[in-house]
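G., the chain you wanted modeled:
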Amino acid sequence: MRMTGILPEDAPDPRVEQVERLKLMPIPVMGLVPQPSLEDTDTVGLGYGQDARGYSEMTASVTYTLWRNPTDRSDPMNLADLDEQSRRAIEDVPPWPRPAWLVEQVERMRYPQLWEAVRTTWHRDSSERYSVRSVLVDHVNYILNQYRHELGLSGNPWDQPATTVTDVMVNGQVTVLVNGVEVPGAEVNTDPFVYGIGAELAGGGVVAAVLPRAELKRVQVQFTTRG
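Predicted structure as tokens:
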């Protein structure tokens, strides 16, 4: 018998379907270069818009697990700062078997996650709205919703979005390494909580990363095509 709301032990891993959906992306999905402090766990989200002509835009977002001490993953410094409710959600094991992939995801919640840290954005039609500066500002403001407590906002992002970064805060005089090549880019280096950087891709589209400033010293900010 399968109870409502309970995944059977043989439930398929949703990441398999995500991989198939990502094949819809007209350009390669980008990520940060492989490095000891970041673990790419294939947690990639795909958003898109459509009209009468088909897909008009797509965005692939890559999430990473952060290891503050990658040489010793048992080091307590690797643990995330969790509230009591989140801790209970991880530690309360239900009396029924769960899919292995779900157990893995729950255990991973013990560690800091860089949610949607890297975005690859494609738009069918070019316009200023889809420029590096505009895409980067949108990404930064989206990630800032994770800092609502620090910004003195309510817990509901629909009440008051954390829109604190504007186009005038973008520095368009920087370079970015993309697949080992230095290219013109743009950055947001004025916010106290996050750092953002992005560039236009040679094959079309934009790649952008928004990272917690507190962890920036542990991250090598260079882009590469995900394997």
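The longest strand covers residues 38-51.

Shout if anything looks off.
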